[in-house]
Amino acid sequence: MKAGQSFKDNVFNTCVTVILIGLAATVVFPLLFTLSSSFASSKELLLKGVVLWPEEWTLEAYRFLLDNAQFTRAFYNAIYITAVGTLINMALSTLMAYGLSHPGVKGRAAVNVIVLFSMLFQGGMIPTYLVIHGLGLINSYWSIWLAGAIAPFNLIVMRSYFQTLPVEIKESARIDGCGEFKILWRIILPVSLPVLITFTLFYTVANWNTYFQAILYLNDANLYPLQVFLRQILIVNSSELGLVVTDTGYSYTPAVPHAAILLTALPLLMVYPFMQKYFSKGMMMGSVKG
């Protein structure tokens, strides 16, 4: 027992530790199962069903996916959608948040109400589809990028953070002859790095996980992102998708779905550790002032 802690404190800390270990196990076990199964042989998976440590490690599933044209095309589509979509999201959100952070902007209050209303109440699937169809964006990535170009929550937090910045900095820059775009680029953005990286991560995850909008607005299977391919490979029979044998002879195995899950999650798992240190700081800085 630690000095200064009562028996009740120790019991409480022990219970919290046990609960956290249990919650961590619920996360680690599926990940370990998927990771191990992706390297297991077909025979072992068919016999055991659950494999936590393969007796025979093999890369057959990964070779099959990397040699499969559908998977590589979907992977490229996901990267393209995420890169361009995140750039559009951050550019529009930053510009709008910076504009709404100025008290003297005409119509600012009305626009803020509209943003808040759109966060609480959405138009619905059918009206949104009719708008996208009316704009001629069906079967185009613009239907994904423009429909979710600005997330109201992200915009409100970014606007709130910009409002906390000292007004004197902007005024001194204007006296030196800087325009609003130069102030934003040279002064505001450099000091807002934690907030910008935080919402870049938010938008990146949202774009990478694009699924429903893709199946709703994209009719060409060659345009499908990785999440749609993952859904097909997990639910639809592999023979119906033409995923039995690749052109160079790699065969579909029961480990392929597990390998597909890991390869789908791998890019975000690689990016997140580098952005984690900015995450909490960015959220706190953006929530100081409403």
TrEMBL record:
It is found in: Cell membrane. InterPro entries: MetI-like (IPR000515), MetI-like_sf (IPR035906). Keywords: Cell membrane, Membrane, Transmembrane, Transmembrane helix, Transport. It holds the Pfam family BPD_transp_1. The chain crosses the membrane at residues 12-33, 74-98, 110-132, 144-162, 183-206, 255-275. Residues 75-274 form the ABC transmembrane type-1 domain. It is a multi-pass membrane protein. Its main location: membrane. Belongs to the binding-protein-dependent transport system permease family. This is L-arabinose transport system permease protein AraQ. It comes from Paenibacillus konkukensis.
